[in-house]
Amino acid sequence: QVQLAESGGGLVQAGxxxxxxxxxxxxxxxxxxxxxxxxxxxxxxEFVAAIRWSGDTTYYAASVKGRFTISxxxxxxxxYLQMNSLKPEDTAVYYxxxxxxxxxVWNYWGQGTQVTVSS
Length: 119
Prior knowledge:
This protein is mainly β. The chain has strands spanning 2-7, 10-13, 18-26, 31-39, 46-52, 58-60, 68-73, 78-83, 92-100, 108-109, 113-118.
């Protein structure tokens, strides 16, 4: 099992920035990649960004590429999502997730943190 704890959400004006953090604990040696997803009210959960645990390759949704940056703190099982140039359409609950080795799905999820961007 891997446990995840997110922090850093809040209210920000359009054009502003926020940084989300996600700390992993438990069987972190089993992590293949970690990522961020988001779910806006009335919409399905969507992929935002991911980072491979080995090699730090990153992936982004087209809607956030160039504005968001996912990174990892190697000494700790910790990832960040730096969000710049925020837009009202970025408003959502943001979830941290883990894709373990040997799995083809994202098995572990955090509780979510609310990000609200006002216009």
